[in-house]
Design goal:
Family: Belongs to the zinc-containing alcohol dehydrogenase family.
CATH class of the largest domain: Alpha Beta
Number of strands: 17
Largest sheet: 7 strands, mixed
CATH topology of the largest domain: Quinone Oxidoreductase, Chain A, domain 1
Distance between the termini: 9 Å
GO molecular function: oxidoreductase activity; zinc ion binding
Shape: globular
CATH architecture of the largest domain: Alpha-Beta Complex
Number of helices: 12
InterPro entries: ADH-like_N, ADH_Zn_CS, GroES-like_sf, NAD(P)-bd_dom_sf
Helix content: 25-40%
Structural class: alpha/beta
CATH superfamily of the largest domain: Medium-chain alcohol dehydrogenases, catalytic domain
Order of helices and strands: EEEHEEEHEEHEHHEHEHEHEHEHEHEHE
Keywords: Metal-binding, Oxidoreductase, Zinc
Bound molecules: zinc ion
Cofactor: Zn(2+)
Length: 347
């Protein structure tokens, strides 16, 4: 089968690999229908994910059809359409039992698919702990609608959940890339008083204004003064930092009012400065990523109910055989790309 493979730092290539087989009783084999390219894939390509194993198939955001299951799998059957969770987790350890599945202590726990074990930019993927890693897609939900449920939408959902958003809050979201927009959608479900989105790319700002006219938009140069002017207590009540750019961590805590919650979703390339003397007395609460991806059922139910729709994010669809060109497009943000759906069924 065709599989997009991490060869070494800087190089991914479409290679021919044997179709994966079940290894553990809890495994499922999934025939991938749609896969997507995520910024985290680019982090692997650029060598900033040290635990990524050369030789693995990349891709951790996908939907497909169950082909076969091991004897220990309870929740899915061959033929089921499923969303694949970015995280692998056992469901039984201390962290899993508390919902902190990102820190599952199983040796293959956490972000394994497309990083430490073969992922889903391929025709088939083996999913360990399939009872936790796969969620049946409701009949009325299409593959395109479900494509992001296991990764970027899960991230936005988790971020909105832990940020403790209330009806009186002004919420500032830094970054309107794909994950920023998913975060925005999930923040809107909490119905805060006001949402401000800060983004420096004019095309992305335009996308937000077009699709979500109830949201205020601003660029990074004006965001501090703008947030202060559009909030009730001298700054945002809740800040979600999803940009991960040079200055955005600083903006996140500066734009927050005293006693605010600042949730850091972004994955930075470099260490960030936490200048405690400057923020002394501001009494901020910081929460940090990555996602605990255990809300897929709720997310798919919200999609089925028409309350979440990420299909506008899919700006391009390409067959798996053209994935290298799709990476190039995505990485260099050409042609107004937001997300690419990779059709693996017509490899
Ligand atoms: Zn991702
Ligand atoms: Zn666990």
């Amino acid at each position: 089968m065709l599989a997009y493979t991490y060869l070494e730092k800087g190089t991914f290539r479409l290679t021919d690999k044997p179709k994966p087989v079940l290894r553990e009783p809890g495994d499922a084999l999934v025939r991938v229908t749609l896969s997507s390219i995520c910024t985290s894939d680019l982090h692997i390509k650029h060598g900033s994910v040290p635990r990524a194993v050369p030789g693995i198939t990349v891709g951790h955001e996908m939907v497909g059809v169950v082909e076969s299951v091991g004897p220990g799998v309870q929740t899915v059957r061959p033929g089921d359409r499923v969303s694949v969770n970015v995280e692998t987790f056992c469901g039984e350890c201390f962290f899993c039992r508390h919902g902190y599945v990102n820190n599952c202590t199983d040796p293959s726990g956490g972000w394994a698919l497309g990083c430490r074990i073969d992922g889903g930019q391929a025709e088939y993927v083996r999913v360990p702990y399939a009872d936790q890693g796969l969620t049946k897609i409701p009949e009325s939900v299409t593959d395109r609608q479900a494509l992001f449920a296991g990764d970027i939408l899960a991230t936005g959902f988790w971020a909105a959940r832990i940020t403790e958003i209330g009806p009186e809050d002004t919420v500032l979201i830094l970054g309107a890339g794909p994950t920023g927009i998913c975060t925005l959608l999930c923040v809107l479900l909490k119905a805060p008083k006001q949402v401000i989105v800060c983004e420096k790319d004019p095309a992305r700002l335009r996308f937000v204004r077009e699709h979500y006219p109830q949201v205020l938009t601003v660029g990074p140069e004006e965001v501090l003064a703008f947030t202060q002017a559009h909030s009730d207590h001298g700054g945002a009540d809740r800040v979600l930092e999803v940009a991960g750019a040079e200055e955005t961590f600083r903006l996140a805590w500066q734009c927050a009012r005293p006693n605010a919650v600042v949730t850091v979703v972004a994955l930075y390339d470099r260490p960030q400065l936490l200048p405690l003397p400057e923020m002394y007395g501001k009494n901020l609460t910081f929460k940090t990523g990555g996602v605990d991806g255990c809300d897929s059922q709720e997310i798919l139910d919200l999609i089925a109910a028409g309350k979440l729709d990420t299909t506008p994010l899919i700006t391009h669809t390409v067959p798996l055989r053209d994935i290298a060109a799709a990476y190039d497009l995505f990485e260099h943000r050409r042609d107004g790309v937001i997300k690419v759906a990779v059709d693996c069924s017509m490899a």
